[in-house]
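Tc1-like transposase DDE domain-containing protein
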Amino acid sequence: MTGKLKKPANISIVALSAKCLELNPIENVWQFMRDNWPSNRIFTFHDNIVGHCCEAWNKLVDQSWRIMTTGRHQRARRF
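Predicted structure tokens:
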């Protein structure tokens, strides 16, 4: 946080603790992906890992509404 930062009047900066990962919307999206798609698997090759991750990412992109709802954690709604 610096006083030198010039920001538009309609933007609010909210300082988040580094230990509050649940308030970072992308962390919730990553957690959802880990819990639902590429988890509980044994990967034998690097290409196998990359393929499963790409498949999971494409599933998520096809469900854009899920990004919005998953990224918006209940505890983060107060901001």
